[in-house]
């Protein structure tokens, strides 16, 4: 089991790119697989989660080739470099029954979106996952998908995995009000809606990430948004298209916060996804006092991306709540670390969804912040954090609880703590950010030197998740 040992960092001045967006990478494989022809995907995130999605679709008869620059076959390796391109031969909406259970690994997105697609197949599939995924509730997707005509067998009242999906060809369209703000549940229902002969509508309580709608549009599948309702008509087959996956703002978030906290730092992040349903982190950091410039380009495939420049300064506490929560849901652990170093109190509330992520992220963040000497109070749906007024934290020894975002958030905390911090159980980082450990080392050793920026990281320089002292 690997660990990170992190020491206090100096201000940084550099330029980086981050690996491809996880949510978009999953969907790129899924929509290309359901399309009517060949699609080429670039920028794909070669992380454990996204490879689980690719393996799942391969097991259902979809030909997927991962290729290097010279067209040789790409394999995941120690370096962490992704494939140059991924070629997916779509088979249309009908998949082939897999020979055995489909392993979704650690990935909730794979299992939940796949449940929507499998609901409309004329075969049954068993979906399995690792220990963490096996504790996550699937009832939130099986409930609405059962109303559409599929049947499911999960474990216990929350229908945790293993989950058997008995698909049904000719699903019924529904109008469904989501009980929680979840892009995964919204997407599962919209995808099942393709297998109906009518109009399926999902009403969300708050706006959630809209990659499914934006990307389906690129693949010429129309969805319609009216206020908080999103509708899709059944029978539309995605048209094959090439697709570029931008960098993941949720991965950039760790470095944005690292730069924002440190007066004198300046960081440029290029080619990062700037979809407005994901950029809440920028708004929060600006509110806390960071200076951020955004240079936006809208890609031909509809997913906006661009360059971010961030300058560090003293941060101040803030309140993160309500409609803003779904937009920053994956960034709350690292925002809690920013809050721990800010001037004044930060309150995070309305975020009880954090309790059903890869781990209970409310209790994990609260426990770990305490190990770093932070004054923090757990709320049922969030936390209250007393900032250190820019003073260094005390080095902590903490676990990731097997959760990639907890591991990375507390590695960043270690950059702002006196002494050596240890974060254990960091293999999980590979589920979203191969190459994180190498980036961390560069940030730790990088100092402001003279003027201008030295591009030190062009691509993920390597997954060191297997290294004992990354
Ligand atoms: C995701 C949606 C969010 C997010 C997850 C990825 C997606 O989950 O936390 O990391 O790709 O749709 P919920 O839908 O459960 O909020």
Task: Describe, in plain words, how this protein is organized in 3D.
It is a single chain. This protein is an alpha/beta fold. The protein folds into 2 domains: 3-20 and 246-445, UDP-n-acetylglucosamine1-carboxyvinyl-transferase, Chain; 22-237, UDP-n-acetylglucosamine1-carboxyvinyl-transferase, Chain (Alpha-beta prism), CATH 3.65.10. It is built from 13 helices and 26 strands. It has helices at 22-33, 48-58, 108-118, 139-147, 183-193, 211-218, 249-261, 280-288, 325-328, 332-340, 361-371, 404-414, 436-445; strands spanning 3-6, 13-17, 38-42, 63-67, 85-89, 102-103, 124-128, 151-155, 160-166, 175-177, 199-203, 223-226, 229-233, 243-244, 266-273, 291-298, 304-311, 319-320, 345-348, 375-379, 382-386, 393-394, 397-399, 417-418, 421-424, 454-455. It has a 5-stranded mixed beta sheet with strand order 16-17-15-2-26. A 4-stranded mixed beta sheet has the order 4-5-3-14, with helices on one face. A 4-stranded mixed beta sheet has the order 6-7-9-8. The longest helix has 13 residues, at 249-261. It starts with a strand and ends in a 15-residue tail after the last strand. The model is unreliable at 448-470 (pLDDT under 50). The structure holds shikimate-3-phosphate.
């Amino acid at each position: 089991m690997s660990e990170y040992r992190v020491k206090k960092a100096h201000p940084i001045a550099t330029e980086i790119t981050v690996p491809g967006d996880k949510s978009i990478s999953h969907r790129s494989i899924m929509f290309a697989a359901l399309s009517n022809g060949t699609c080429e995907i670039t920028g794909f995130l070669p992380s454990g989660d996204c490879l689980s999605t690719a393996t799942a679709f391969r097991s259902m008869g979809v030909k997927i080739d991962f290729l290097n620059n010279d067209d040789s076959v790409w394999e995941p390796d120690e370096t962490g470099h992704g494939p140059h391109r991924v070629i997916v031969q779509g088979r249309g909406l009908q998949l082939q029954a897999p020979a055995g259970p489909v392993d979704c690994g650690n990935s909730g997105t794979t299992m939940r979106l796949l449940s929507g697609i499998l609901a409309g197949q004329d075969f049954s599939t068993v979906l399995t996952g690792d220990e963490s995924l096996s504790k996550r509730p699937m009832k939130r997707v099986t409930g609405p998908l059962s109303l559409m005509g599929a049947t499911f067998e999960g474990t216990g009242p929350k229908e945790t995995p293993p989950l058997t999906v008995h698909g049904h060809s000719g699903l019924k369209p529904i109008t469904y009000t989501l009980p929680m703000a979840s892009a995964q549940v919204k997407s599962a229902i919209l995808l099942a809606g393709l297998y109906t002969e009518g109009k399926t509508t999902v009403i969300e309580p708050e706006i959630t990430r809209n990659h499914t709608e934006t990307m389906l549009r690129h693949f010429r599948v129309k969805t319609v948004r009216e206020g908080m309702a999103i509708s899709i008509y059944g029978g539309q087959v995605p048209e094959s298209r090439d697709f570029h996956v931008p960098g993941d703002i949720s991965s950039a978030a760790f470095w944005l916060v690292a730069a924002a906290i440190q007066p004198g730092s300046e960081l440029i992040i290029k080619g990062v996804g700037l979809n407005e349903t994901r950029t809440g982190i920028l708004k929060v950091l600006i509110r806390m006092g960071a200076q951020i410039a955004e240079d936006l380009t809208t890609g031909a495939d509809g997913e906006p991306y661009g360059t971010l420049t961030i300058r560090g300064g003293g941060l101040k506490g803030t309140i993160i709540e309500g409609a803003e929560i779904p937009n920053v849901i994956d960034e709350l652990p690292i925002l809690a670390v920013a809050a721990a170093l800010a001037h004044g109190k930060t309150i995070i509330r309305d975020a009880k969804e954090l309790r059903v992520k890869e781990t209970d992220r409310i209790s994990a963040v609260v426990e770990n912040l305490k190990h770093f000497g932070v004054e923090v109070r757990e709320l049922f749906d969030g936390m209250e954090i007393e900032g250190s007024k820019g003073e260094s934290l005390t080095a902590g020894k903490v676990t990731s609880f097997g959760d990639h975002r907890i591991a990375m958030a507390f590695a960043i905390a270690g950059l702002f703590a006196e002494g050596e911090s240890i974060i254990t159980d960091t293999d999980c980082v590979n589920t979203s950010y191969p190459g994180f450990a190498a980036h961390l080392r560069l940030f730790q050793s990088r100092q402001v030197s003279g003027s201008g920026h030295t591009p030190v990281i062009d691509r993920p320089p390597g997954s060191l998740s297997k290294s004992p002292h990354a």
